Amino acid sequence: MRWFHRLRHGIRSLLGHRAVDRQIDNDIAFHLEEATAEYVRAGLPPDQAYRAALKAFGDPVGVRDDVRDESMWIWFERLGQDLRYSLRGFRRTPVFALAVVLSIALGIGSSTAIFSLFNALVLRPVPVRDPGTLFQVLHTGDAGTFESSTYAFYEHVRSRSDLVAGALLVDPAYPQRIVVDGQAHSAATQRVSGDYYRTLGVAPALGRVIQSSDEHGAVPNRVAVLGHAYWMNRFGGDAGVLGRTVIIDDQPHTIVGVTGPEFFGLQVGRRADVTIPLDGHEEQTFWKSRALLMRLAPRVSRDAAATGLEAAFQHYLAQGGEPMSAQTRAGAFRSVTLASSWSGLPEFRDRYGTAVQVALGIVGVLLVLGCANLASLFLARAAGRQHDLSVCMALGANRGRLARQVLSETLFIACAGGVLGVIVALVGARMVVALLPNAGPSVDLAVGPDRTVLLFGLAATLLTGAAISLAPVALTRRVDVRRGLAAGGRSVVVGGRAFRVLIVMQVALSTMLVIAAMLLLATLNNLRAQPLGFVADGVLTMTVDADGTDLEGPRLAEVHAQVLGRLQALPGVQQATFATNPPLGTNEDGKLIAIPGVTFSSPDDAVLQVNTVGPGFFETFGVRILRGRGITAADGASSKPVVVVSESMARHYFPGVDPIGRRMDVGRGRTGGQIEIVGIADDVRYTDLRKAAPRMLYLPAQQREPEEAMMFAVRTAGNPASQAHAVTGVVQAVDASLLTTDVKTLALVRDERLINERLLAMLSASFGALALLLAAVGVYGVVAYAVSMRTSEFGLRVALGASRRTLLWLGLRGSMALVAIAVVVGAAGAFLASSLLAGLLFQVRPAEPWVYAATALVLLAVGLVAAIVPTYRASCVDPATTLRTS
Fold it and tell me: What residue intervals traverse the membrane (predicted)?
């Protein structure tokens, strides 16, 4: 309404009605004055009398809106004046302004970049209907929490209509061989129950989605729903894709629909390219790694649903849903629990969530440190303007006006840095995502600027501006007009306590960041120094998958032998082999064992990990044979069964005894010691570098049934990555139906296992170095300001005979005392917060004495170097000149 009246007055002025408006305004003012005077005579205070007059007057022509609009207009005019004055001031000091803007941009940019990752992993809801009522059903026991489920239990949950509005079962997306128009490629495929899309409330962008009638293969050709990105990349967005047939798992599937671009599935960070229905009747009661999700029924709370599902779970187990031992039930099947699926399934959150949260805390501390540093600069700037502020107050400006001017300066430059920081955040977040290993299905972690990220950037900008302005604004409340005018153009000593607080804050925060950086760097170094048991350099690995082909048994074994022979014949290849689980692999294969004459102390001792390997495995991967021999081409199907054991296995089962020549059995149904131990190999790390090497058995591939997916490896004389095209060409030349995936060097696989540690070490080291730089700049600035305020005192002391060493001690004493106090405060803060890093450290304690001692020495050295330069310069004063100008 007030803007309408402002526009009305403007139009009337342009039309020549200014005199009429002035007369109307005069009449209104006259009547308001009379009415207000009447209410005042009646005993009302003047402000209440004016409001009562307005109400009685009826505001026929929008007086109230004009009054409000006039105050708003004046406010905008004053704000514009403040901003113009600030801009002129920064134009006179462009270097200072540019340094401050870049500092704020780096602080806000790094914080917003890490927050965008945190938002994508934790805060952003999955693009489904009402995600707040979506929960994952987990079973728990003494061994932890597990997500596996059976189809029968899923049906049991779905039948509880009093608690559940819908339920679904989903096999996580994983790379699978898909044949389109006769060409095989890998795509992330997930299997879902028939009510997957209905429960989620996801509609198709094209065609239809999977329905309950599709779930059990009821139609002649099974159906498939494509993800939008896969449809665009593979089929060019062709609407005629409906009805086409693709081959998945050696079965024809008819494409019936395409999902919208916003729906990627339920795995945050993973994109489902193809979705097909699962067949629950194949494995009705077998516990598989499937996610079981449910949607709460209306007016049912989470606690009520959890209680009801617990009773349903116990009833399901009592009915014999899955035969299991008492130990298994106590370990994993004591009860069920509900976990919120607001932000989808937790694969990426479990893998990177802790690292992202720690990184967010580090950049948050760095942002606070930057604010303290900039506050020192603005405080010094405000202290240097004491004479100007005194003149302004002498001419009639009040302290509120001065405070608003200082606040507008800091907010103006903070907004400029914030805008630049958000741009930096977009690039930085994508760079961090690019560092994540692209293992398995396509990585689809959206880190773009949504509303939450932009609000975070805006809040960080405003809080940064406010934090920077606190000390300078407080300084304006203590401007002494008489003292400032009497000092002329000379500086006035003010803000000493604020400077000391800021320097302690800066050095303390820097100490905390440096301690965290050193702990994480020590962790990375310890992990890299771990004995891996193999030589990663020079090795190229790839997965050759025969899934979906007609190759099996002896024919598949012959194909593997042909691929191996051709790989060995490639120029530059020194060794070649294949295995079901290469070093650092995750393909666990536990088998029951029996050793004549050995009694197992626990049921876990009866299960060992088995690796099926081809000839040349130990030579290709550089695994040492400590005793005996390795697996050779002579260990064929007609030869005596042999096995090579790891050192930890030999030490555990044969303490003080030579295991070479001893016999054992592997797998169910074997007795009598059919397999002879012919060698002992060095322990090799698998899966996780933080865990000890597993006790491993190496069996010849020629003496076992061939696996569909086999990992081939070659050791080359030069760069192994240069052989990538040649090795894939060999596989296609042997059989074009084979799918080759995950072609990468073993060194890259090793680095991927350390991705969390490398990211944290890199970020913390970078921010720690930046913290040291900011601390040095802060100490330098504060000491320079402090000694400049004592120039007259130093001149007088020199005139009275004080030496330069005495002046240096006077200048450094107070500064180094503050630095020492700050280091102690920072070390104490780091010790209290060390529990947050405990789970990320490896072979280093959160309170490692040498880390704290080294950090203290570094900070004290930085503080000494930063303080000695301005102090030495001040000690070289000319007493005659100083006393003459003081």
Answer: 95-118, 358-380, 411-433, 453-475, 499-522, 759-787, 807-838, 850-869
Q: Which of 475, 242, 257 is nearest to 381 (CA)?
A: 475
pLDDT digits (tens, 9 = 90+) for 125-143: 888 999 889 999 888 887 7
Q: One-letter amino acid identity for 785? A: Y
- Structure-token pair, residue 469: 């302005």
What tokens were used for 781?
């600035």
Q: The tokens 């700050």 sit on which residue?
A: 822
Alpha-carbon distance of 593 to 668, in angstroms, equals 8
- Among the listed residues 755, 113, 763, 840, the one whose alpha carbon sits nearest the alpha carbon of residue 437: 755
Q: Alpha-carbon distance 633 to 741, whole Å?
A: 26
Alpha helices by DSSP H, listed for 333-398, are 347-384, 386-394
CA distance linking residue 178 with residue 255, whole number of Å:
13
| Cβ neighbours for 183, distance < 8 A, ≥ 6 positions apart | none
Convert the pLDDT of each residue in 421-457 to its tens digit. Answer: 888 887 777 777 766 654 444 456 677 777 888 888 8
Give the three-state DSSP class for 401: helix
Burial class of residue 745, CB neighbours in 10 A (0-12, 13-18, 19+): buried
Cα 609-610-612 angle, rounded to 5 deg: 155
Which residues contact residue 462 at a Cβ distance below 8 angstroms, ignoring those fewer than 6 apart? Answer: 411, 414
Dihedral-angle region of residue 52 (phi above 0 means left; psi in -120 to 50 means alpha; beta otherwise) = alpha
CA–chain centroid gap for 252, Å, is 40
CB-based burial label for 721 (10 Å; 0-12, 13-18, 19+): middle
For the chain, how big is the Rg over CA atoms in Å?
37
CA-to-CA separations, 476 to 346, 405, 469, in angstroms, rounded: 51, 10, 11
pTM: 0.68
Handedness of CA 299, 197, 190, 348 (dihedral sign): negative
Residue with structure tokens 């927050």? 115
Question: Which residues have C-beta within 8 Å of that of residue 792, sequence separation ≥ 6?
Answer: 882, 883, 886
Question: With contact defined as beta carbons under 8 Å apart, do 697 and 608 qualify?
Answer: yes
DSSP string over 7-63: HHHHHHHHTT-HHHHHHHHHHHHHHHHHHHHHHHHTT--HHHHHHHHHHHHT-TT-H
Rounded to whole angstroms, how far apart are CA atoms 149 and 170?
10
